[in-house]
Amino acid sequence: MTAPQPLAPGEIGTWAAPGRVNLIGEHLDYVGGPVMPIAIDLRTTVKVRRRDDGKVRVWSAISDGSVEFDATTTPGDVSGWARYVAGTVWALAQSGRTTGGADLVVSSDVPLGAGLSSSAALECSVAVALAGAEGWEIDPIALALTCQRAENEYVGAPTGSMDQLASMCGEVGHALLIETAPTPPTVRAVPAHWVEDGYALVVVDTQAKHSLATGEYGVRRAQTEELSALLGVEQLASAPPDSVLKVEDPVLKARLRHVITETQRVRSAARALSARDWRQLGQLMTASHASLRDDYDVSAPELDLTVETVLEHGAIGARMTGGGFGGSAIALVEAERVGALTEAVAAAFARVDFKEPRTFVVSPAGGATRLS
Ligand code: GAF
C-alpha cells in the first residue's frame, strides 16, 4: 500500500497500529502458553470521518476505488481485504459498540503476506480509529481481543491473540511477555536493549507468501485440541513435560514436544532478555526454529535456507517468525554485520532460484495510537 489519499472536510484525525515480529513463543497463543513479540516500526494508518447514515466506506491504496458496507454487517457480507475492516466493525458491534457510520482511508507500510501481522495492524488501526472517533473508552487488551474475534469469526482465520495484543500494546524499546492464559491475557513489557549493546534484529521477508486462512494452521490447531482431550488438560502449554511419553502417535508426540519445549524456551528467553545475555537469547531462537521445523512442521524451504545462511554469516540466533509456511525469518546479529548478512541471504536465494528476499532491520515500537 502507498500513501493515504486525502479525506475531505470533517476529518476527525488519524490513528495507527503496527505490525509485529515474534521474538519467541510460536504457536503457543492458542494453547495457553507464553509468547514474546515486539511491535515493529512499520504500521497501518487510518484517517476517519464520521457519517450518520449507518454506512462504513473504506478506501485503501491496495483497492480499486472503495468498499461500502452497513455498520450492522454480518460475517459473509464482505470479502477481500475489506473483510478485516468489516470484521472489526462487526466485532465492535458484538461488544455493544455499533458505529453510526464512518469514512475510513487506510494506508500501510506493513508488507502483506509476509508474516508480520498486516491483518492485525489493519484490524487494530480501524478499531482505535473508530473508538477514537466515537469517543469509546476501551481497554487495549479488550480491544485486541475484539480484533482477534474479527479475525476468527468474520474473516475465518482461527488465530490466537498474540498479533492483536502486540499491535495494540507494543512499547518502544520493549518486548512484550504475554501470558495467553488464563483469560484475559496479561502483557508485561520487558526492556529490550540489544541496540544499545551493538546488535540488530534483522527481518528477512522471504517473499514466500503465507496465509492463515488456509488449511495447515487450522490443522495444527486441531491437533493441539486432540492432544488436550487425550491428556485431559485445559491448556496444552501447561501439560507436564513427561506427558510426551503418554502420546503414541508420532505426529502428535512431535507437536506436543514443540509446545512443551517452546514454553520452556520462552521463559528462558525472557530471563536472557532481562539479563542482556544475547548469546543465550540467540541460542534459544535457533532452537525454537529447529523445533518449528522438525516437530511442529510449519517451516518452509525459504525460511530454513535463511536461518542456515544467517547463522553461517555471523548471526547469533535466527528463526522463522509468525505462523510459518512462508513469510519472514528473523536474525539477531552484531549491527556491523547486517550488510554482509543481507548480501549472503540474497546470494543464497539467487543460487537456488528463490524470489529475491527483502531484508531490513526492525526495532521495538509503540502500539496502536492516535497520530493527529
Ligand atoms: C499467526 C497467528 F495469527 C498468531 O495468533 C500465532 O498463532 C502465530 O501465527 C504463531 O505463533 O501469526
Provide a brief overview of the structure.
With 372 residues, the protein is α+β, with helices and mostly antiparallel strands.
Key attributes of the depicted protein:
8-stranded mixed beta sheet, binds 2-deoxy-2-fluoro-alpha-D-galactopyranose, 37% helix, globular, alpha+beta, Alpha-Beta Plaits, 4-stranded antiparallel beta sheet, 372 residues, 9 helices, Ribosomal Protein S5, domain 2
Describe, in plain words, how this protein is organized in 3D.
It is a single chain. With 372 residues, the chain is an alpha+beta fold. The protein folds into two domains: 11-191, 2-Layer Sandwich (Ribosomal Protein S5, domain 2); 195-362, GHMP kinase, C-terminal domain (Alpha-Beta Plaits, 2-Layer Sandwich), CATH 3.30.70.890. 37% of the residues lie in helices and 23% in strands. The chain is built from nine helices and twelve strands. It has helices at 82-94, 118-134, 140-155, 162-169, 215-231, 250-274, 278-294, 301-312, 338-351, and strands at residues 11-24, 34-50, 55-60, 66-70, 102-108, 174-179, 186-191, 199-205, 317-321, 328-334, 358-362, 369-370. Strands 1, 2, 3, 4, 5, 6, 7 and 12 form an eight-stranded mixed β-sheet that branches. β6 (174-179) and β7 (186-191) form a beta hairpin. α1 (82-94) crosses α3. The longest helix has 25 residues, at 250-274. It is globular and about 60 Å long. The two termini are 20 Å apart. The relative contact order is 0.18. The mean pLDDT is 96. Bound molecules: 2-deoxy-2-fluoro-alpha-D-galactopyranose. The site of 2-deoxy-2-fluoro-alpha-D-galactopyranose (GAF) has 12 residues, from α4.
